[in-house]
Each structure stands twice: as C-alpha cells, then as structure tokens.
Design brief:
Domain UBX: 16-90
Number of strands: 5
Shape: elongated
Helix content: 10-25%
CATH superfamily: Phosphatidylinositol 3-kinase Catalytic Subunit, Chain A, domain 1
Strand order of the largest sheet: 2-1-5-3-4
Pfam families: UBX
Protein name: UBX domain-containing protein
Strand content: 25-35%
Keywords: Ubl conjugation pathway
Largest sheet: 5 strands, mixed
C-alpha cells in the first residue's frame, strides 16, 4: 500500500510540474529576476516581482521577437508560447 501511495504522489507531483514555467525577466534598469511560475498569466508573473512602478509596459521576447501588450495580459504562459522556459524583457511606454 505504501508503494502505491508513493507512486500516486509522484505522478501528482509530475503533473503539477508539467504546468510550471521557468521565466527570466530583464527589467529596464538591467536587473534580472527569474522564477518558476505555475499557469500564471503574462503580466501576473512580472507584477509579482513588485519592481515596476508603472503598469504601462510591454513584454518582449527576442527570438522570435514577439511583443505582448496589455491586450494580452490575461494570456497564460503556455498560450503565449513561454512554457516551459522563457526569457522576456520589459519595455516601458
């Protein structure tokens, strides 16, 4: 019974990790912060760092160059193609 319980716990952990994305954010001041996020939206990830004093910014990936403006703020990391790993930089408006 204990083995079955361990196996089930391991399966559940792997399922949770499948929804986790590693995101590195480069801020306008040059600072970089990285963190693992679960199924968050694009802007929730950046806002969770509490570094920016404005909400007027876009998130940009280098390759392929993609700009995510506020009209995409409710898009999930997975839907934005930033799962399982991404690097974005911030452009202040």
């Amino acid at each position: 019974m204990a083995r079955e319980s361990q196996r089930q716990e391991e399966e559940e952990r792997l399922e949770r990790e499948a929804d986790v994305a590693q995101v590195l954010v480069r801020f306008p001041n040059g600072e970089r912060k990285g963190r693992r996020f679960e199924s968050n939206t694009l802007y929730d990830c950046v806002d969770s760092f509490g570094v920016l004093e404005t909400e007027e910014y876009s998130l940009i990936t280098n390759f392929p160059r993609t700009v995510y403006r506020r009209d995409k703020e409710s898009m999930s990391l997975k839907d934005a193609g930033l799962h399982p790993q991404a690097s974005v930089f911030i452009e202040i408006h």
